[in-house]
Amino acid sequence: MRMEDLDEMQRLPLFSGAAPAHVDAMLKASFLQRFPPCVELVREGEPADFLHVVVEGQVEMFSAYRDRETTVGVLGAGQSFIVAAVLLDKAYLKSARALSPSRILMIPADGVRRYFQDDAAFARALAIELSLAYRGIVKELKNQKLRSGLERLANWLLSRDTETGSTGHFGLPFDKKILASRLGMAPEVLSRSFAALIPYHVIVNGPSVHLKDQGALTQLARPSITIDDPAS
Length: 232
Prior knowledge:
Number of domains: 2
Strand content: 15-25%
Helix content: 40-55%
CATH superfamily of the largest domain: Jelly Rolls
CATH architecture of the largest domain: Sandwich
Number of helices: 10
Shape: elongated
Largest sheet: 4 strands, antiparallel
Radius of gyration: 19 Å
Structural class: alpha+beta
CATH topology of the largest domain: Jelly Rolls
Distance between the termini: 36 Å
């Protein structure tokens, strides 16, 4: 790893407060690699050899069973995967692949486990990662169980608008097939759901989305703090 890359990696939130010697030891054993879209990064069922940190790009977490596949989540810069498998020295329960050109830090699992025991600040950072992942799972379970597909889409659009500056105009961050899987519906159901949002003044043109009446869409979506607020 180049010196400038080492300096950048040391500033990752995962290492905040950790002993510099411990961070240096982990980084010297790590790999910083670039991956093109669609490359599989980890495979469900395989041993957790590395903790992966997304430095740039987007990564899709997914799972497959027989002839079916579903998107479990989409990660962005600063997020790690899969912490639980690494700490427990268990097999990955999900697979991961790059959605866009991505830069990934790969930290050997044995080093992560060692410094989880020896460095309280590093252990705290990993505990926070695990806690956020757990809360994300609970939110997603509630989202899937308590809402219709149309309500899930409406809330996702409102959240995406907030993430991109609340302008009412944004681009989809990934393919509609991925979005459909992320929302727990078939692609054709997503298309029908977008059509059903036309009376709420949602205009979709390819990857471009215009929310012409956010009030009407909010009335349909009825966002919940305990599901939709990323700070909760």
